[in-house]
Design brief:
Elements lengths: L2 H7 L15 E5 L3 H13 L3 E5 L2 H11 L3 E5 L7 H10 L5 E6 L4 H9 L4 E4 L4 H9 L4
Helix pairs in contact: 1-2, 3-4
């Protein structure tokens, strides 16, 4: 089953909570438009404000304007990968929670992401519950 199929199955989920503890602005960054758009739609249905970016460079520009509380950032993007995108976003000195998103689930991959400044590491396909847990850690 493809990662998108797992995400699509999440559309029939039971809400994690009755209402979000607080509404967050969430920036989803993935070069796979379907994944970014689907995650954005699911988070919007949870009561958050979500925007999608499809490249590292467009995400950096949108980051400054949107001022998200949480950034969910795919690591394996072409041109500007997730690590370089994170570095550029952190240079803006804006507070946000950065969640790495990858297809690789090994301990080395996780350690690398966390040691370079990500606050959390999620493996695709993401569950809405795991994503919500990371969003609720954001200091809104």
């Amino acid at each position: 089953m493809t990662p998108l199929a797992h995400i699509a199955m999440a559309a029939s989920y039971e809400p994690v909570s009755e209402a979000p503890a607080s509404v967050c602005r969430v920036l989803i960054v993935d070069d796979d438009h379907n994944t970014a758009d689907t995650l954005g739609a699911l988070l919007t249905s949870e009561g958050h404000f979500a925007k999608a970016a499809y490249s590292g460079s467009s995400a950096v520009a949108l980051f400054a304007e949107f001022k998200p509380h949480v950034v969910v950032l795919h690591l394996g993007m072409p041109q500007l990968n997730g690590y370089e995108t994170l570095r550029r976003m952190k240079a803006a000195r804006t507070q946000a929670r950065f969640v790495a998103m990858s297809s690789f689930g090994g301990a080395t991959d996780r350690r690398l992401a966390l040691s370079t400044g990500f606050d959390a590491y999620l493996v695709k396909p993401l569950s809405l519950e795991a994503l919500n847990r990371e969003i609720y850690f954001a200091d809104v």
